[in-house]
Amino acid sequence: MDKDETTGNDSIEVLRSAAVLTSFGPGTMLHTTEGEVPIEWLDTGHKLLTLDHGAQPIVQINRIRLLRSDLRRHSELSPVVLPPDTFGPSIPGHHVRISPNSLVLYRSPRAELDFGSSEVLVSGNMLAEPMPLRRPGDTTFVYTQILMQRHELLSIEGMWVGSLFVADLNAMDTEKDDPLVAALGKTAMVAARPILTRTEARALLAQDLGGRSIQTRLDLSGH
């Protein structure tokens, strides 16, 4: 199911959804069983390549259109932009735009000591601080959210970025016949990896980077 919502009346629900949940910007290329496909072309007939469970079907796609007026009033919704070669040669291959709270896989031996896993999830807005990355604001923008049956790490131009993560479906305004509820039920979704808070991520990145490029620790290829 593909849902397309357009703001312009400052819809609190739509804006909160775009701000809090993982979303991808136009032109994002995702790996499917048919090769790389632009996010605009994706539908529930596609299967995406995931880090943990191989090829998995898409349950639902949400598209949220933010007007220029929305972005002027809510600058926190502006995307984080990952320029080409940010994390190494052709990773990504072109500018990739994600929502500030999109969850990116980060690998660090120090994380094992602090959080019990060498692989953790760090929000895009935290990666934007040490890099730094640009945040364009004054334009119309469409975010796309991809719901899988569980929280998955999706392959995006050499990076691993989380699918739509809904910690508590009871907090969402969903109908009983909504495919999201039908697929997942009213139960909490489990994150694919530990999600670091802003304070935790800031501390870990500061210790790991020490002024060096973030690509020395991100190791996004999965190899």
Describe the structure.
- There is one protein chain.
- This protein has 223 residues and is of the alpha+beta class.
- The protein has 7 helices and 13 strands.
- The longest helix is centred in the C-terminal third of the chain and has 12 residues, at 198-209.
- It is globular and about 40 Å long.
- The chain starts with a strand and ends in a 5-residue tail after the last helix.
- Mean pLDDT is 78; it is low at 6-10 and 219-223.
- This is Hint domain-containing protein.
Topology:
Elements lengths: L1 E5 L5 H9 L8 E4 L2 E4 L8 E4 L3 E4 L2 E7 L1 H6 L6 E3 L13 E3 L4 E5 L1 H7 L3 E5 H4 L13 E7 L5 E4 L2 E4 L16 H6 L13 H12 L5 H4 L5
Parallel strand pairs: 1-6
Antiparallel strand pairs: 2-3, 4-5, 6-11, 7-8, 9-10, 12-13
Count of separate DSSP helical elements? 7
Structural class: alpha+beta
Order of helices and strands: EHEEEEEHEEEHEHEEEHHH
How helical, in percent, are the residues? 10-25%
| Average predicted local confidence, pLDDT | 78
Task: Give the uncertain stretches in residue-range form.
Answer: 6-10, 219-223
Distance between the termini: 33 Å
Strand line-up of the largest beta sheet: 1-6-11
Please state the CA-atom Rg, rounded to the nearest Å: 17 Å
